[in-house]
Amino acid sequence: MSIRKAGMTRKHLSDLVMKSIFRISAFASVAIVVLIGLFILREALPAFREIGVWKLLTGTEWRPGQNLFGLLSMIAGSGLVTLGAIVLGLPLALGCGIFMAEIAPAWIRGIVKPSIELLAGIPSVIFGLFGMVVLVPLVRGIDYPGNAGFGLLSASIVLAVMILPTIASVSEVAIRSVPDEYRQGALALGSTRWETIRKVILPAARSGILSAVVLGLGRAVGETIAMIMVIGNSVMMPTAAGGDPLGIFLSRARTLTGNIAVEMNYATGLHSQALFATGVILFLLIMVINSTARALMARSMGSSR
Amino acid sequence: MSDEHRLRTEGYSLFYGSFRALNDITVDIPANAITSIIGPSGCGKSTFLRSFNRMNELIPGVRITGRVLLDGEDIFLEDVVALRKKVGMVFQRPNPFPKTIFDNVAYGPRIHGARDRGGLAALVERSLRDAALWDEVKDDLQKSALALSGGQQQRLCIARALAVEPEVILMDEPASALDPIATLRIEELLQALKQKYTIVIVTHNMQQAARVSDFTAFMMTDEQRAGNLVEFGPTKQIFTTPRDRRTEDYISGRFG
Fold it and tell me: pLDDT per residue over A225-270, tens digit each?
């Protein structure tokens, strides 16, 4: 072997070492996800066997003392609070995204954008505190049978604020990536700025905005501590005590995440396994939501030239 | 008709901050004719063209002095939306919206208040016919505009501009992104359109200017890099007996 060749081999060796280090780190993170998934699934399996998947998903009674493990009221709680957060938060977040991408001059954007990023960095327990001390007393002021302030409305408002940064930033990026030629074309036809945004830019950014919403959904479904602090945590099917459909948001509820966090400390046996089953359901839900967001984002990248 | 002047600038200058991009331009652009603006790269042709529908205002820090008149009215005193309805524009790169062919053409009429479905369909058909695109797309009006070829997309953009029923159409190197056959079709189309419209076209292609236009404006930068109008006249005269030495040098390919 010539000297030159030996030198090359040494170079290759360092490449090889670095390559395997990077590969190991990449595989490690994948392995962690898979292992956590498998672990939860293993712990949950006895619950699925003994209670049955169908009964877990559709049972309305959750009474661990009597071996009744129905998650439907928690599924409803998580679903309703997420819906409420999207309904309240989406207009605000989208407005923020549109403002930052299309309207704000650079210096105002320079204030708004870091503020929104700061909002994303606030620990969720702080949001919970704020909800407990400020929102709950306000909501309690609404005159409605059984309204204690703690419940779906307070939780939806807190959650709406928590998902705002995600939706605002991702939709801003989506709107920014709309080619400037569309903007110019619309303006040259005599569109006002608002017509340009509404009729050309937002439709062109549609799939990106949709993926922003889905990412927000994922964040909303997974939120735990802030929900525990304001939603009331009663194991009950949310109902409108006054009869009108919107009144359901003044009902107390419990989320799937809250169910695990509140009860895991003292749960044993089948009870504990049923909580792991709750975790499996959450895990699957988040997986579905994230892959939807990923698919939507891939589509939005493909459509903008 | 053609000695009537539709567009006119008087002592018109444009600044980006303190940089003077256009210097004291006075010109009369005849109605129902094609006027081409030629000149070396960076001479301010496109900036000048974009003055007529006030697209330069989208750039922060732009300032103007002098006047630009459409039918005798100062365009800077007019509502910009109303102005752009009268002065349509076709861009260098075809830029159809990511919508159907029909919705692209119907976009302008709709934002300007067209509600009647039958009338809208007729207007879309007429605009596509005038843009010489109808026969190629009449069975695919609900197809995405982005599925068309580059040349078809550019004719769609022309149809989209026509649907607003403008008086003037500005074209910023409309064929420079197209192949020779698509270019030829656009040039033929321009001849048909000048019966109804006043057309101003920026081109870096001198043969194209000589082929298609009735009048030609030659622009060039001065020592301060500001764009000046060197010479304006009937295309034939500009290309055969230019009055200015610089025009002659440019036409005969000595620079630019």
Answer: 999 999 999 999 998 888 888 899 999 999 999 999 999 999 999 9
The full set of domain ranges for chain B reads 5-98+162-251
DSSP state of B195: T
DSSP string spanning B3-14? TSEEEEEEEEEE
Q: Residue A298's domain is classified under what CATH number?
A: 1.10.3720.10
- The answer to whether B122 contacts chain A (CB < 8 Å) is no
C-alpha to C-alpha distances, B121 to B58, B99, B117, B157, nearest whole angstrom: 32, 16, 6, 17
ipTM score for this prediction: 0.92
What sign does the CA torsion over B36, B39, B42, B47 have?
A: negative
Topology of the domain covering B5-98+162-251 = Rossmann fold (3.40.50)
What's the predicted TM-score (pTM) here?
Answer: 0.83
Q: Answer with the one of A14, A32, A51 that is the final residue of a domain.
A: A51
Residue B36 bridge partners (DSSP): B201, B216
Decide if A106 contacts A183 (C-beta within 8 A): no
pLDDT tens digits, one per residue of A131-151: 999 999 999 999 998 899 999
Residues of chain B contacting residue A194, judged by C-beta atoms under 8 Å apart: none
Of A209, A213, A210, A201, residue with least CA distance to A174: A209
Residue in A closest to B106 by C-alpha: A189
Residue A185 has its nearest CB partner, among B58, B60, B97, at B97
Q: Are A41 and A184 in the same domain?
A: no
> Which of A185, A192, A200 has its CB closest to that of B81?
A192
Which two tokens mark A160? Answer: 């709406």
Contact flag A303-B98 (C-beta cutoff 8 Å): yes
